[in-house]
Amino acid sequence: MTADRADRSRPRSRMTGPERREQLIAVGRKLFADKGFEATTVEEVAAKANVSKPVVYEHFGGKEGLYAVVVDREIQALMGGISAALEEPEGARVLLERATLALLDYIENDPAGFRILVRDSPPGQSTGSFASVLGDVAVQVEHLLGAEFKQRGLDPKSAPIHAQMLVGMVALTGQWWLDRRKFKKDQVAAHLVNLAWNGLSGLDRAPRLVTVPHR
C-alpha cells in the first residue's frame, strides 16, 4: 500500500462543535457577501460545508440565526475600529480624520464584511442593519460636535443633525469607493475631511433657505 493510499484509508478526524460552528459561519459569511440574505439558502450553506441541513439548524436555528451571528461579528469589527479612533481627545479635526480612516480601513481590509452590512437584511429586522450601525456611530460623533459647536459659538442642539450628515457622507462615499478604487484611501479620506471640516468652519449661526420665504 502506498503512502497516499494509506493516508486516504485513515478515518478523517471529525470537527468539534465549535469548529463546525466556525466553519458554517465562514461559509455563510461568503455566501451572504456574494449573494445577499434573500438569495442564500440553508441548502447552499450545508452543501458548501459538506454537512446536512439539520446540522445548520442545530447550530443556528436557520438562515436568520446564521445571518445574525455573521452580521454581529461585522458590526463589532467596524464599531471597534471607529470607537478606538474616537477614544483619545486630540481635537475635533483629528478625531474626524481618524473616524473617517477607520471606516475606510474596514472597507479596504474587509470588503466582504462591508458588503454584508450594506446588502439586504431579513424583513422586519431593525437591528444589525447598516443604518442602525451608522446611527450608533453618529451618536458618538454627536457629542464631539456638540463640544466643538460650543467653542465656535454655534447652537449645540444642531449637533445631532450634523452628526447624521457627516456619518452618512462618509458611509456613502465608502460604498462608492468600494467598487471604484480610482483614488487611494488617504486621498478619499482627505477629500472627505476637507469638505466636512471646511463646511463646518463656515457654518451660518442661523441657516436659512434662500428659495423659501422666511416664516
UniProtKB/TrEMBL annotation:
Pfam families: TetR_C_32, TetR_N. Residues 1-20 are annotated as: Disordered. One of its GO terms (biological process) is negative regulation of DNA-templated transcription. It comes from the Bacteria. The keyword Cytoplasm does not apply. Residues 1-10 have a biased composition (Basic and acidic residues). Residues 18-78 form the HTH tetR-type domain. GO terms for molecular function: DNA-binding transcription factor activity; transcription cis-regulatory region binding. The keyword Transcription applies. Keywords: DNA-binding, Transcription, Transcription regulation. Residues 41-60 bind DNA. This is TetR family transcriptional regulator. It comes from Terrabacter aerolatus. The lineage of its organism: Bacteria, Bacillati, Actinomycetota, Actinomycetes, Micrococcales.
